[in-house]
Amino acid sequence: MVIRKSANKIKRMIKKASCIFLIGHKNLDLDAIGSQIGMLKIVENFNKKAYIIIDDEYHEPGVRKILTELNDVLNIIKSEQVKELKDKNSLLIIHDTNKKELLQNKKIIEDFKNIMIIDHHDIDKNSIDNAYMVNDVETSSTCEMIAELIEEYEIEIEPYYATAILSGIVLDTNNFMLNAKPETFYMAYFLTSLGASAKKVQYLLKQDLEAYIEREKLFYNITTISDKIAITKGSAKTKYRKEDLAKVADTLLFFNNIETSFVIGKIGKDEIGVSARNLGSFDVLKILEKLGGGGSERGGAAVIKNKTIKQVETKIKNLLTKED
Question: ∠ CA(218), CA(139), CA(303), 5° rounding?
């Protein structure tokens, strides 16, 4: 409900802007792109021009499908094109992150004096501090926040756009099994009333078979601490996507007694990724911050450079022992 209280301020900032630029985090997921698409429709409803900034060269399957099918109508640009399109009254709206380092282009905020952030992740010392922040950590997703705005403004949007927004909610709640509150289900109903297709959402969420098989291998190396914390790691020879690690971390919470999960895997040439989730009283953010990452007490991620998977695993276990 936080975003509804900010609805008038958001509307004023949009109407005052000469044009609007929308940007999400690196490695776009359905929540980031879905919320940007929703905001694009809001901006267009107020008769303003908007651009979506995307620098990613690779897109996960669902995002790729959306961008392919909506390629001609989304006004997608690269960050390098911004300077020729913006002026001093332009507005930058950041979606699904509040960290400069996680943006498609971390230098983009230097080009704007008017910045707004719409996000559901925890704010910390690394958060952008020169922006109007609309943050709701109790909300399942940024897409849920945007859906609330669309209802608040009484905007009619086409079914495909409603589907894209719904897909972000389904992704971040793992099919409504995590972080879903009554309001989440209501916004899903609202989007469906606008024509969102549950069948199309499942199409957007379809996975590559090879990626699924590699992800399943992460379940072969599970160890537990105090019967409540599950830790697993991938092979040093296999490169995973960050979202693959996140999906495994989510899934581990569905096993009996497991309240907290940590998943470790290689995500780049010299980078190890960690994804963590929590349903109990344990605060995974404390561990992630000591690894150089962030998120919330319920979940988040970290990227560690120039370390081996084993070294990262040992570090996490040592930190967990101290917290226990």
Answer: 40
